[in-house]
């Protein structure tokens, strides 16, 4: 039975039936909340483990077609040559790529004929405060991509990245002589942080005073211990939620009204789980980002240092497709578009699509916009 047929059947339930199922679902949610979480269900093989970082290879689909956001997607029998590597942000868990069976980027790309891999950055805690950008960019990225090459038997790969995952990918390309990355898709990746909403305006305004004070006092944020910058996961969750506080109220009210509908609860609670279970941001990484990317906006200038290595973004020549959400309050359109100015790629495109920071990537309209555009774009460059 399709989700549409199930919805039609449920719409015929009477008040007494809805009350019965509301009580039953409410009790189960209170006692066994994990029963309603339907993320990360796609089977995979772990092909690399390096500390808390790991790389997954997802298994091919057995179905003839799958349902994604109410549409039936035929599963391609042909496998495209260039594998796709999914790269998540640092604060958000990788479950956003396999959120629910009917809203799974993993399943969508598998159905389109891609060989799909994912880099999982792992569960960062306060014990990992010393993890630096250098670790992610110059240690884990090359090891992960090398594992993908060995597993797939292909020299070239495509990357599909979200938010900070896109920035890490760009940094890797800007510091590496490795030309294995053929195509790069970035979604809501804030290359120009001084152009990113209210926070960007604040950073731009305090840049010059901060430089002056630093010079007079002979002091830099880099002088402080990394542990002072460690950001707990709940902080990132709160920032996400505060971008749309009224949405939280409406969502809670709608969940109460639909307590009888198990499918609705699964979708609502799974999405809430992703928002609630964000991981910590390593202190060393935040310290480097605060100075080089937030205050000094070095990435937007096209040059920055990662550890002792100079990143030259003009060295990036991979084909690039960049996205921004039209209602994203965290990453503005201009902040995401800046990537086109700092790379040397001849093949580069920019798209503005519906959605906020999470919606542009995994919202109900993402499959027909961000996913569909990306799949078509990658398909033409993966034969």
Strand segment count: 14
User: What's the helix-strand series?
Assistant: HHEEEEEEEHEHEHEHHHHHHEEEHHEHH
CATH topology: Rossmann fold
Fraction of residues in helix = 40-55%
| Alpha-beta classification | alpha/beta
Number of helices: 15
Rg result: 22 Å
Which class in CATH terms? Alpha Beta
> What does the oligomeric state look like here?
single chain
> How many strands, what sense, and barrel or not for the largest sheet?
8 strands, mixed
CATH homologous superfamily assignment: Alpha/Beta hydrolase fold, catalytic domain
**Can you tell me the overall shape?**
globular
In CATH, the architecture is: 3-Layer(aba) Sandwich
Euclidean distance between termini CA atoms: 35 Å
Spatial strand order of the main sheet: 1-2-8-5-9-10-13-14
Strand content bin: 15-25%
Explained architecture:
With 383 residues, the protein is α/β, with parallel strands linked by helices. It has a single domain, classed as Rossmann fold, CATH 3.40.50.1820. 44% of the residues lie in helices and 18% in strands. It is built from 15 helices and 14 strands. It has helices at 3-10, 15-31, 105-111, 133-152, 164-175, 197-217, 233-242, 245-257, 262-276, 283-295, 298-301, 333-337, 339-342, 359-362, 367-380; strands at residues 44-50, 53-58, 65-68, 71-74, 84-87, 98-100, 103-104, 116-120, 157-162, 181-187, 303-306, 309-312, 319-325, 348-353. The strands form 4 sheets. An 8-stranded mixed sheet has the order 1-2-8-5-9-10-13-14, sandwiched between helices. A hairpin with a 2-residue loop joins strand 6 and strand 7. Helix 4 packs across helix 5 (164-175). The radius of gyration is 22 Å and the shape is globular. The two termini are 35 Å apart. The mean pLDDT is 88.
């Amino acid at each position: 039975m399709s989700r549409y047929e199930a919805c039609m059947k449920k719409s015929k339930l009477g008040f007494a039936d809805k009350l019965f199922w509301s009580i039953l679902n409410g009790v189960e949610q209170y006692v066994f909340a994990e029963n309603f979480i339907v993320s990360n269900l796609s089977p995979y093989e772990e092909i690399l483990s390096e500390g808390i970082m790991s790389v997954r290879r997802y298994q091919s689909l057995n179905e003839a077609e799958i349902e994604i956001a109410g549409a039936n997607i035929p599963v391609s029998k042909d496998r495209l040559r260039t594998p796709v590597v999914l790269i998540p942000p640092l604060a958000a868990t990788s479950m956003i790529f396999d959120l629910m069976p009917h809203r799974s980027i993993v399943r969508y790309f598998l159905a389109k004929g891609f060989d799909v891999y994912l880099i999982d950055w792992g569960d960062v805690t306060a014990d990992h405060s010393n993890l630096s950008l250098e670790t992610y960019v110059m240690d884990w990225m090359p090891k992960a991509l090398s594992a993908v090459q060995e597993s797939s038997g292909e020299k070239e790969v495509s990357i599909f990245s979200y938010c900070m995952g896109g920035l890490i990918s760009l940094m890797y390309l800007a510091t590496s002589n490795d030309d294995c990355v053929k195509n790069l898709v970035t979604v809501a990746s804030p290359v120009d942080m001084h152009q990113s909403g209210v926070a960007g305006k604040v950073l731009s305004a305090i840049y010059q005073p901060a430089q002056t004070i630093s010079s007079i006092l002979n002091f830099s944020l880099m002088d402080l211990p990394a542990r002072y910058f460690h950001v707990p996961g709940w902080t990132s969750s709160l920032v996400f939620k505060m971008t749309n506080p009224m949405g939280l109220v409406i969502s809670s009210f709608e969940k109460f009204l639909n307590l009888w509908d198990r499918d609705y609860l699964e979708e609502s609670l799974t999405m809430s789980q992703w928002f609630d279970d964000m991981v910590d941001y390593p202190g060393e990484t935040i310290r480097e980002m605060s100075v080089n990317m937030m205050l000094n906006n070095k990435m937007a200038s096209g040059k920055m240092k990662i550890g002792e290595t100079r990143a030259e973004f003009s060295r990036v020549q991979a084909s690039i497709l960049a996205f921004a959400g039209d209602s994203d309050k965290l990453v503005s359109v201009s902040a995401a578009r800046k990537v086109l100015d700092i790379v040397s790629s001849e093949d580069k495109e920019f798209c503005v699509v519906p959605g906020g920071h999470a919606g542009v990537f995994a919202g109900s309209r993402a499959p027909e916009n961000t996913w569909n555009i990306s799949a078509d774009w990658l398909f033409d460059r993966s034969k």
